[in-house]
């Protein structure tokens, strides 16, 4: 493949632009592939602009030291800083506006969410996941009858505009919901057993059990979302439970991450994202094994086979 690309570069009569995302995934012991790639612009007759995207800014200095010895090969760096608080606020609001649900999030809740995420990582995907989890909690409380209703206003407006009153009542996402999710994501103080037992959907339980099954029985602990989805799908199929497709599964894993139980090392391609447990394995196992279905999954080593 490398030789074929080099041949095309040397024989192309047009200016070429090659963009390589996640180039740190090409790292090897001798870095032969990366060195070959960075030499492409200096090939005879080459008319090439090469752009490499990596998670670390010092990748070339740290792993490709020989490039610094040749001026024509030394790459120029462009740093894309994490999102600021205001940028996260604007992106979050735009997503809510697209879904026509901007009014369910009070501005102060969005400000709190954006401030915390920008201070820790600046990852807008984490901000969106926290928002989704806050909505989920608010909906659970509303269904349980725990929503706050201003009874005085209800009495005064019963004979008035009922539609507007209902809209006020349905504004369920509060600062407390966002703060609860933020604390779970960035703190390890909550009770895992309580979190799992209270409104933890079946699909999320099966996903987490599939992860535990892999960690217990496979030597390769480097678990990607793609690998996890395959095992999860086999577990569901054996039990006649509807399984999510990979796109839906990525969203499910991200939601569990907002509970603070998982940590995802994100990649440009979601299925290559690495999934890690943020909690002690024995503590997670003890909480999950309370249910017969969950215990059966943890013992189902046959689902690990291809």
Q: Which fold does the CATH topology of the largest domain refer to?
A: Arc Repressor Mutant, subunit A
**CA-based shape:** globular
How many DSSP-defined strands?
4
Tally of alpha and pi helices: 15
CATH class of the largest domain: Mainly Alpha
Order of the strands making up the biggest sheet? 1-2
CATH architectural label of the largest domain:
Orthogonal Bundle
Assembly state of the chains shown: single chain
Mean pLDDT: 79
Please indicate the percent range of residues in DSSP E strands (runs of 2 or more). 5-15%
> Biggest β-sheet: count, sense, barrel?
2 strands, parallel
Question: Can you walk me through this structure?
Answer:
- With 306 residues, this protein is mainly alpha-helical.
- The chain folds into three domains: 1-73, no CATH class; 85-145 and 162-186; 202-303, Orthogonal Bundle (Arc Repressor Mutant, subunit A), CATH 1.10.10.10.
- 52% of the residues lie in helices and 6% in strands.
- The chain has helices at residues 2-11, 32-38, 59-63, 85-98, 107-120, 124-143, 151-157, 162-169, 175-186, 192-197, 202-217, 225-238, 246-257, 281-288, 292-298; strands at residues 16-20, 48-52, 262-265, 274-277.
- α5 crosses α6 (124-143) and α11 (202-217) runs parallel beside α15 (292-298).
- The protein is globular.
- The two termini are 28 Å apart.
């Amino acid at each position: 493949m490398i030789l074929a690309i080099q041949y095309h570069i040397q024989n192309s009569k047009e200016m070429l632009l090659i963009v390589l995302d996640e180039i740190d995934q090409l790292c090897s012991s001798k870095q032969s592939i990366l060195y070959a790639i960075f030499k492409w612009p200096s090939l005879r007759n080459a008319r090439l602009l090469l752009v490499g995207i990596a998670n670390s800014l010092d990748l070339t200095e740290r792993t490709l030291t020989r490039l610094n010895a040749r001026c024509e090969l030394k790459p120029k760096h462009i740093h894309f800083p994490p999102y600021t608080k205001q940028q996260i606020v604007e992106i979050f609001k735009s997503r809510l506006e697209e879904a026509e649900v901007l009014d369910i999030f009070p501005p102060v809740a969005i400000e709190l969410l954006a401030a915390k995420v920008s201070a820790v990582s600046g990852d807008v995907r984490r901000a969106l996941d926290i928002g989704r989890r806050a909505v989920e909690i608010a909906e659970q409380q509303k269904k349980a009858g725990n929503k706050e209703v201003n009874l005085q206003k209800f009495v005064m407006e019963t004979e008035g505009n009922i539609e507007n009153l209902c809209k006020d009542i349905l504004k369920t996402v509060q600062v407390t919901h966002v703060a609860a999710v933020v604390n779970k994501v960035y703190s390890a103080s909550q009770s895992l057993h309580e979190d799992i037992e209270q409104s933890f959907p079946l699909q999320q339980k099966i996903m987490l059990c599939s992860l535990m099954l892999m960690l217990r029985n496979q030597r390769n602990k480097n678990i990607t979302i793609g690998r996890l989805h395959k095992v999860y799908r086999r577990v569901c199929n054996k039990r006649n439970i509807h399984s999510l497709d990979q796109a839906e599964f990525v969203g499910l894993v991200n939601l569990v991450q907002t509970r603070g139980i998982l940590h995802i090392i994100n990649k440009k391609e979601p299925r290559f994202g690495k999934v890690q447990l943020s909690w002690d394995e024995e503590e997670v196992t003890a909480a999950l094994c309370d249910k017969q279905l969950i215990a059966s999954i943890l013992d189902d080593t046959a689902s690990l086979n291809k």
